[in-house]
Automatic annotation (TrEMBL):
Family: Belongs to the 4-toluene sulfonate uptake permease (TSUP) (TC 2.A.102) family.
Organism in which the protein naturally occurs: Novispirillum itersonii (Aquaspirillum itersonii)
InterPro entries found in the cross-reference section: TM_pro_TauE-like, TSUP/Inactive_protease-like
Bilayer-spanning residue ranges: 12-44, 50-70, 106-124, 145-174, 180-201, 208-231, 237-254
Domain of life where this protein originates: Bacteria
One Gene Ontology cellular component annotation held by this UniProt entry: plasma membrane
Protein's name in the database: Probable membrane transporter protein
Main location, first listed in the record: membrane
Amino acid sequence: MDPVISLLLPFLAALGIGAVLGFFGGLFGIGGGIIAIPVLVLGFGMDQTLAQGTALAMMVPNLVMAWWRYWRRGPGGLGRGTLRVALAGTLTTYGAAQVAQGINPQVLQLVFAGFLVVVGLGQWRRQGAEAAAGAPPSSRQRLMPLVGVAGGGCMGLLGVGGGLVATPLLTGLFGLGQRAAQGVALAMVSPSSAAALLSYARAQRVDWPLGAALAVGGVLTVSAGVALAHALPERRLRALFGLMLIGTAGLLALEKTGLL
């Protein structure tokens, strides 16, 4: 094979993968790391740590772009609450990452996969009931930083999944519409992922050229995913989100049990 082509193929593959992940990240308000990390390990031969750092290089710009698009389109009234959720999530991510060093990651991720199945089934069953859009009552809004604690704890322990945890909590416990919840989750995960990327970069566990290619592909398609999210009915978007959670859980379980 021509040396130039052999160098271009991984770059073009990364662009394509990043484009797919960026679209679904915009649609569901997630970073795509749960899918990107196994792809980088299995398809690009990376070790787990390098794959996680490289996936973060893709996730940070995608998450920021998606959050900005949701913020421009989404309902208002959540400025202070969103800031508190984001701050709680960022601080918890850092603390949980320190705790995770002494815990078996395979056990954690299998537990997390089971959690996603339960939440995903719940989202699917709730598709017949519209969630109320807009800000929750003030009594509940004061508790919204707990969503940041839950999402940040997941991201710190597992390196992924902050938005997957935050969104169903915001819809189920705080009555937000699916789109509004995804926007708040993005505001929480964006600074958390940036802090995590800084940590991986300091440890030199990021493949920057590959991560940049993934990011470019993702940024090109995030807006299309956000646009579709706002075009779909709330019930359908919630049902698709539930199916995505169940599928993600299956992928995570297969990867961690060595079957993928």
